[in-house]
Every structure is written in C-alpha cells, then in structure tokens.
Amino acid sequence: MTAELVRGQNHPLTQTRLEIRVSAGAPVVAGATLSDDAGRVHGRDWVAHPGAPALPGLEVPRQAAADHRLAVDLDAVPEAAHRVSVLLALPTGPGDPDRFGAVAAPFVAVTGLDGSEVASYTITDLDAESAVVALELYRRQGAWKVRAVGQGYAGGLGALLTDQGLPDARALAGEIGEAVARGLARTVAPPPPRTAASGASAMADAAGAASHAASPGTHPSDGPPRSTQPQSPAEPQSSPAPRPAHEPQPARPSGRTGPVNYTHPGRQAPAPPVPAPTAPPAEPGQPAVPVAGDATGWSMDERLYNQVWGMFEDLARCVAAYRSAVDFADSRMEQELDKALSDPRSRIGGQGDAAREAARAKHGQLVDRAREVLDRDLAQLAAESAVVEPALPPAYAGWDNPVWHAYGSPMEIPMALRLGDLQLPESRGVGLRIPMLVRLPLERGMWIDSGRSGADALTESDELRRRALRSAVELAARLLAVYPAGEFAVHVIDPAGSAAGALAPLVRAGVLAAPPTAGVAGVSDVLARLTQRVDLVQMAVRGGAADALPPDLDTAEQLLIVNDFPHGFDDRAVTRLRYLADEGPAVGVHLLMVADREDAAEYGPVLDPLWRALLRLTPVPDDHLADPWVGHAWTYEPPHVPPGSRILEQVLEEVARARREQGI
C-alpha cells in the first residue's frame, strides 16, 4: 500500500535502492543534500545539484524540468550522513515563475526499482517560497525512514542551503543557477537492479543478455543463454522500467486463449500523476482500438517505452502459445497413430486407414484452430504497431520515420535507444516488427559482427564489412543525436585506415572528438587516454570527490569505435580493451567493436570474456538473439538509413550546429 503523507508524517522504508520522482506544473530544479544527525551539511561535496549531479549513493538531474527522477542507494550513503534531503527550486531565468504559489503544487513520490510506490507527498500551502525541502530520508536506529517536510524558503535556494549550515550557500546557489541556465541538463536513469532480471530492463537487455544463446549464427563457445543482468530495464532488453522496461518476468505461456489484451494488465504500475491516453470503447465483439501511449508512465516517452515492451511480451506469449498448441497436436497424432499401429488387426485393411485419417484430421483441426487464434492476435499487434510507430520520438524511431525531419538537439537524454527491430518467423506474414530498445545510459558495449552468419552465408565478406561499418556509423550518429549537445563524444580507432569511406559522414560533419586514429602508436594513445579517464572517474566516485577531477577532463559519455580488430593491437592494447569493456560503462566509457570473431582466433580463449561482455549485433538480419522467458530465437534486423535518403547527413549537421552553439 502506498503511504500518502502529510507534512511532518514519516513512513518506514523497507528498500534501500529507490527512485524519487517529482512532478510539477512548471520546470523546477531538483537537488539533494547529505547532512549529519544535526541536519548540518558539511560542505559542497555533500550537495548534489545540476552542476555536480552525483554523490555516493545519490544522483540528481542536470536541468530544470517539470518531471524528474532522482536515484538513491541508501547503502552507499556515507556513514557520517544521517539525512538525505530532497530540494526543489524554481529556476531564475527570464519569464520563469518566481514563487511556488504561481504554479501547481509539486508532487513527490518514493518508489522501488520495480516502479511500486512506497510513499507520496503533495506539497501544498506554498506561496512566496521559491525553494522547498520536499522530503528527507533519514537514518534512525539503523533503519531508514522518509518524512514529508514541505519547508519553503522565500529567499530561494541560497536561503535554504544557508539554513542547512553550508558556509558559502549563496555562492553555490548562484553556480547552480548558472549550470541550469547553460542547459547542462539530463534526467537520471533509474539505478540498475542488483539481482538478475527484474523484468525492467527492456527488450535489448533480455535479448541482449541472451545474445550468446545457442542458435543459428552464434559461436558454440558463447555458451548457453544467461539470465538477464539488466542495466537498468531489460531487453530483448527490455522490460518496463522499473521502468517498463519492463516489470515482473512474464510467466511461461501455456494454452493462452482469447485476444491480446490492450489494457496490458501485466505491465501496470502505480498510476502516475499524468494519465495515459485511453482507447475509445470498442463495439461489442470487436477488438479494442489501439492507441499510442496506452501504457502507464510519467511521460509520453515512458508510456511508449512501456507499450513497446508490452508488445514484445504479447508477441512472445502468443507465439509460444501457438507453438505449444502445435506441439500438442503433433504429440497427440503420434500417440493415436502408435495406438492404431499397435493392434495387428488394424495394420491392414480399411480400419487402419480410417484410424490414421482420423488422427491426421484431428491434428489439422487443432493446428488450424491454433493458427486462427495466432492470426487474430498478430493482426491486433500489427494494428497497434501501425499506431505506435508514427508516434515514437527520435530515440525510439527508425530512420524512415518522419520525426527525424523535424529533429532538433534535445535538452535531456531519453530513457532508451532503438538498436534495431525484432521479429519471429510467425510474424513475418503480417510484417510485424518490435523495436529493440536498450536503456540509456548504456550498460554494456556492443559488437557489430562483420563475419558470416548462418542466416546470410552467401554475402561476400567485403560486403559484410562495409555493412558492419555503415551500421556502426549510423549507431554512433543516433547516439550523438539523442544526447544533448556536448554530452556525448565519439572516438574512432581505424589502424589501417580502411574505414575512411564509411566514416565520411561523421568526419564531414565535424562531430568526432578527434580525427580517426590510425597506426599502432595511435591505438595505444587512444586506449591509454580512455583507460586513464576510467581510472580517474572511478577513484573520484569511490572517494566522493567528483569536484577533484582535472578541469580538462571531458565529463561527457564516451564511445570508442574500434574497426578492423585485431589489426594494430598488441597484447597490452588487448588488455586495455578488455578493461574498457568491463569497467568503462559504469563511468560513461562505451565500446563499439566492428570485427569478425574468426579474425581474432589467434588470441585463443583469452578474448572470450570480451565477446561475452558485449551485445552482439549483426549488419544483416540474423536470428541470434534469444529471450530468457520462453526461449524464442528472435531475428534481429539493423536500422539502416533508407537508400537515397540524406536524413543521416541532415541530423549530423544539426548535431554539429548545436555543438557549435555550445562552443564545442
């Protein structure tokens, strides 16, 4: 049960990994402070704000927005800190409201990683205040509780921080205002679950985690499917966010009857303040009319994300039910034929023929009935897909979606990114594809396999390499486009210079962090710099000294594209590459390999951990992804730019323009 708190009321917390969600009627700045048992903040390094959003156990958004997510891990909060205070303040820009009395009452909710609401508080009775302490999470006798505070300050954020004992409160408040004004904002993704698949990682994680499942086109050394370790929702990846990513794992389908349910009861989460659109009532006996965003969530993007995950689950279930029904029909026919043949008197003559014909007829009836149910469900899902696809934001949309023609540089990173499409053999007849979404920030690197696969063994190896490079460029362009300007940087290692043609769109637009690196010395230099960045950020995070990072350190997310591996790599470079694959994602350094695994066979099993750490993608359709629930082999199809389209160049030009405006 959700506790609806009033001012001063407290409620026990049974979980230590939480999200705090904020919904306001106007953009607000969200932050948090750590304080001792007397409520005193010891210094700037105990304040999480848009300019320095991460503290041990705490991360806040980097911009002013009407909706926020704050990530909290109470087990990681320093022992000296006894309180975590959640702060809200109105931005001080021109045209912004100057008091909370002029906007709708802010709503704050504490939720678990699965989206379940623990406690909520609507901050009422605010008038001239422009900053407020909304909630505090406090430690009492070894246990954590949440208290609704609602203490407002007419003097703004400076007065609030001064009241908490911060010596240079006014100066810090000014710096926070400047950081918000510069647009250094992005919302914070929910923290990753610590346990295996929570069903919230989205389609990419589930499918991604199982990408090494034994299936056509995979390598035997990849091993059996693994349970999902979501980064954050699931996947293919994706489960609803704890997020929808996705929620409790679906039960193994068996004997399902009836049409797909468009109310999606399996993915319902606590009702958010903003209701999702609902479909108009259907005529009796007619299927429900699909509506884009017909799922729960705090924003349209989150509702669409959850809806895509629900479509993935629905397709997995209805196909599993169909296959189960066909297996049952086959087994029953075999039993009846065995029974007919077991009687010597029925082996010859009309009696045996009649028994065999009856068994085959019954088998055909059962299969036809199962196919009828499947066709009905596939038609409903295809109708929903036809409504959802045009409504997807750029991060979720294919390159052929018109939304890209209105592209503008975003102010915050989205929940997820589309890596391609997923389909099953049974869904090809209706052209049904489910977007494969992976949560952002990325939790694992990717490997675009340029080698031959079982699904496309006839394509020439040189053509496969060209397609793999094109896929890498299109993926890098998509990542650059969905991140705010300056929040994402791309590096390229091309030891032999063989990727110059494919990399031309990125080079011409000027969106690479540096020209593509060639030669053994260049490979070593790039890997050394990125390895050093990982080490520095890890030490700063573990020591709670984010402000001590070198001023010239690029804090943007980093993507390293490695082409033609292992050419130009010595043993030391390979070791650094493995280190980046393992440790980089946690501190914002991601790996994108373009390689044929057979080319690296000379290293033997030493590289097996590297390949297993990466999500395998292919430049051509291939059925190498498997979900961990029912074991389907999903066909992955990469999201290529339509032939003759200039949308990639147009998007990169807009990215470059936004970067120039930021002085990058």
| Average predicted confidence as pLDDT | 81
User: Using DSSP, what is the number of strands?
Assistant: 21
Tell me the distance between the termini.
Answer: 49 Å
- Tell me, briefly, the overall form: globular
Helix- and strand-based class?
A: alpha+beta
Give the biggest sheet: 12 strands, mixed
The Cα radius of gyration reads 27 Å
Classify the beta-strand content into a percent band.
Answer: 15-25%
Low-confidence stretches: 184-258, 261-276
Enumerate how many helices there are, as a single number.
11
- Provide the helix percentage: 25-40%
List the helices and strands and how they pair.
Layout: E1 3-5, E2 10-12, E3 17-35, E4 47-48, E5 54-55, E6 58-59, E7 65-73, E8 83-89, E9 107-112, E10 117-122, E11 131-140, E12 143-153, H1 156-163, H2 169-181, H3 203-209, H4 300-342, H5 350-391, E13 416-423, E14 434-439, E15 446-449, H6 461-482, E16 488-493, H7 500-509, H8 519-543, E17 557-563, H9 571-583, E18 589-595, H10 608-613, E19 615-617, E20 622-626, E21 633-637, H11 647-661
Parallel strand pairs: 1-10, 15-18, 15-19, 16-17, 17-18
Antiparallel strand pairs: 2-12, 3-4, 3-7, 3-8, 3-9, 5-6, 6-7, 8-11, 9-10, 11-12, 13-14, 13-21, 20-21
Helix pairs in contact: 1-2, 4-5, 6-7, 6-11, 8-9
Question: Could you list some keywords that capture this structure?
Answer:
single chain, 664 residues, alpha+beta, twelve-stranded mixed beta sheet, 11 helices, 21 strands
Would you write up a description of this structure?
By secondary structure, the chain is of the alpha+beta class. It has helices spanning 156-163, 169-181, 203-209, 300-342, 350-391, 461-482, 500-509, 519-543, 571-583, 608-613, 647-661; strands spanning 3-5, 10-12, 17-35, 47-48, 54-55, 58-59, 65-73, 83-89, 107-112, 117-122, 131-140, 143-153, 416-423, 434-439, 446-449, 488-493, 557-563, 589-595, 615-617, 622-626, 633-637. The strands form three sheets. Strands 1, 2, 3, 4, 5, 6, 7, 8, 9, 10, 11 and 12 form a twelve-stranded mixed β-sheet that branches. Strand 11 (131-140) and strand 12 form a beta hairpin. Helix 1 (156-163) packs across helix 2, helix 6 packs parallel to helix 7 (500-509) and helix 6 crosses helix 11 (647-661). Mean pLDDT is 81; it is low at 184-258 and 261-276.
